[in-house]
Structure formats: structure tokens, C-alpha cells
Amino acid sequence: RDRKLMDSAVYVEMLQILLPHFSDSREDVRSSCINLYGKVVQKLRAPRTQAMEEQLVSTLVPLLLTMQEGNAKVSQKCVKTLLRCSYFMAWELPKRAYSRKPWDNQQQTVAKICKCLVNTHQDSAFIFLSQSLEYAKNSRASLRKCSVMFIGSLVPCMESIMTEDRLNEVKAALENLRHDPEASVCIYAAQVQDHILASCWQNSWLPHGDSWVCYPATTHHWSSSCENLPTSHQRRSWIMQALGSWKMSLKQ
């Protein structure tokens, strides 16, 4: 048993070394590291340790995004490695998560994947967000574009746990991406801003656990000022303020 634990610790260490190279600018490095990662995962044995689980969960977003970069060779390795991770972890991801088909005009597909990730690994949701924001800075435009699409579906899924700081971080990233040298990235960044705004304006009036939505424009019972909101709504008031300033900045 001690030997098994020692082996698994070595394998996890190898995986930690390989993961950062998934976003390497050289195709052969990306392809080799993703392929080797999958082969190391095949060596892992039960019982799953916490270190193993955390490591493989942190692999989800890099694999999903790299699969979308448009490079057939690299994407193929991503699919194979994701399948190996899923088998070991007994994940039940949507079928389209293993597809190399581009996400363009497939917002429902991306939303389904994000919803599954957040529901299954809520403790790792902010790691998923940080990783996708990091990939949105990648030198390859295809990765920046799919990262923006991913962020657009991920943020609404995190509505119940989102913090003001992280929402501001998303806002700043999307603002920068609206001035991206690649036109398609600019377009998606603008669309995602609108999508997040629409989603949050609607959901920020929904207290956690309530089954109804209160729209200030159509319901005379509520005032949109924070002081007059019931206690359950007051804790969400920063979202209203943050989104208000965001909306104003978009109009400028």
C-alpha cells in the first residue's frame, strides 16, 4: 500500500509538471505533453487520493479549451487524454465535451458543459474561471476566442457564488478583448459582455433558494434602491451596482 501511495505521488508530480505545457506556443510540445499526460493518468490506480482528484479536475478547462484551438493533431490528443481522465474519475460529462467540433454558434453546448462542471465541482469553479481568463491572454487567437465563449457560459453558472472582485476581473478582461487585434475575438467579447449582463440583471434579483424572479421594471412591490430591498436581496446589491457601472461603461 505504501508503495502504491508513493507511486501515485510521483505520478501526480509528473502531471503537475506536464500541465503548464498544454499552452506552449510550440505544437509538438503541446501535443507530446498532452499525450504523455494521458499515459500517466492510465498508470493511476485506486484508491483516488485528494491530490489526484484535484490535479485531474484542474486539467478539465485546459483540455476543453485546447481541444478548440483548431489544430487537428493537438485536438485529437486532448480528446484521448480527456477520455482517460473521465474514465479514472468516473466523470459524466456531456457527450459534446469530447467533440472537436468548433463551438461557434453552439452557445447551448458550451453552457451545458459549464453547468456540468460547476454542478459537479463547485469548489473548483473559481479555478475554472482563473484558467479560462489566463487562456484568454494566449498568443493564439483561436484560444482567446474559445476562452471568451467559455467565460460567457461559465460566469452565469457561478451566479450564486460570484464575488465582486471576480466579476470586476471578468469585466476588465472582456474590455481588453473588445480591442483584440483579431476581429472574431472582439465580436465574441462584446456578445459575451451582453450575455453576462442580461443573465446577471435577471438573476441578481433572485435570492438563493427562491423560486421566483422579481423584475423591478414590472413589479410595483419593490424599489430598485438597495436600502428598500428585503434583507435576502441586500446581500446581492453589489451585483446591481457593479452591473450598473458596467452597463454605463459599455454605452460610452
Automatic annotation (TrEMBL):
Domain Maestro/Maestro-like HEAT-repeats positions: 8-194
SUPFAM superfamilies listed in its UniProt record: ARM repeat
Protein name: HEAT repeat-containing protein 8
Originating species: Macaca mulatta
